[in-house]
Amino acid sequence: LTDLGHAQAKDLAEWLHGKVPQVEAIYTSSLNRTRETAVPLEEIYGLSAVVDHRLR
Question: I need a labelling partner for 24 at 20 to 30 A (CA). Which of 6, 16, 17, 51 fits?
Fold first, then answer.
């Protein structure tokens, strides 16, 4: 992701956490950009994303 993409992913994670304060799992595809987008979600929810190759 670009610097802007990282900032947008962080903003999205904060917004989503405000709307949905608790989740049971985070799923992502194996694409690098989706893994990078999931990092702020992992941090804010304290979870590790599950990589599912079927999501490609």
Answer: 6
